[in-house]
Amino acid sequence: MSGGTALARSMRILYAAIDQRVPGADGGSVHVGSVASGLAALGHEVHVLATAGEGAPPEPAHWHAESPVLGIRQLRLLSAGRVARLARELRPDVVIERYYNFGGEGVLAARQVGALLVLEVNAPVVDHPGARKRLVDRLLLVEPMRRWREWQCARADLIVTPIAAILPAWVSPDKIVEMEWGADTRRFRPDATGPVPFHRQPGETVAVFAGAFRAWHGARKLVEAVRELRRRGQNQVRAVFIGEGPTLDDVRRLAQGVTGIEFTGRIPHEQMPSALAAADVGVAPFEVTAHPPLALGFYWSPLKLFEYMAAGLPVVAPRIDRLSGLARHDQEGLLYDPSGPDGLVAALERLTDPAYRARLGTAARRRAETTFGWDTHCRALELAITTALACRRHDA
Question: Is 198 inside a domain boundary?
């Protein structure tokens, strides 16, 4: 294998994520930028294929602008020729592909140059119960979509995912590495300074929601909680909503007539550290029943939770699978029963206590630094890759 030996300290890595716009504000964009720059900071030569966003992508990785044909994600595989040409030019030790059902261009390129293939899986490979995609696949008799995505898994030397339950059951545990996303703990800090897109008054407890406003993000739950607090005469909790997305207009309509609610719209991700540092509580009121694929398990590694924690905010979230192990109840935040109407309300009420809030926020910051930083993620990824390379060389 050219471009370095398997046990060399420095690896040459080609990272194929062409449907992600970098830089950008959504989770996928932040993930790709953070992993690429984090691996490069560890001394590896990292080349990334991604759609060019606004501004300069993070250094010290090398960025190659490449978008899906016509900008359509489902046509990503048509870029396979260009990905393979770059792979032949670079001769990487490792190819990382960000998995997508209609992808596979990195998989094909890795085969051509004999590179170790790392498949980064953040969405289900298997179909959830009642999936329309599954029904269509069966109508095609040979189930081409299932076969293609399973072929990608079979070709991978290493699969990195937040949760193994979203992979086919036949995938060997030996090549699965469960790994959480993270936050840039150098930028997201309790003392971060910069523009703040909202105003606050003395004595307020500002609860922030940051997200893409999809139905399962549960933004409406925070509106309903503030309305109930106002009905009870509890006026100190104020909610700030950062971001935009499909349900934003519905959430705005729900908030009409409710005092103490502000919508900032979307802000650049580089302004998020100062925005979170100016808040008191980070809210992630997920509604898993609104997203059928979550029947497989809570497979997200929620970026907002890690950034809240890095900013020193206690987290408020429903008590559901996996979240309980990220922000622990009464340690880094408060987890409420999502089946009852008053869980979120009670959690917000309890966090109006500044001393209690400070204790949880300090613990959240500490846990983010030790466990959920992108630097921690990249060191663990580096170890998994170098171990796989060593095993491959031993078996050759």
Answer: no
* Same domain? 342 vs 352: yes
- Give whole-number Cα distances, 146 to 21, 77, 120, 151, in Å: 27, 16, 17, 8
Specify whether the CB–CB gap between 158 and 116 falls below 8 A. yes
Residue 4 has pLDDT above 60, yes or no: no
CA 337/CA 138 separation, integer angstroms: 38
Residues 40 and 110 occupy one common structural domain: yes
pTM of the model: 0.93
How far apart are the two ends of the chain, measured CA to CA in Å? 11
Q: Look up residue 87 and give its amino acid.
A: A
Mean pLDDT over the full length of the chain: 93
Q: What are phi and psi of 303, to 5 degrees?
A: -55, -40
Mean pLDDT over 46-65 rounds to: 94
pLDDT-derived band of residue 1, with 50, 70 and 90 as boundaries?
very low
Domain count, the chain: 2
| Crossing angle of helices 144-155 and 105-113, rounded to 10° | 40
Are 166 and 29 members of one domain? yes
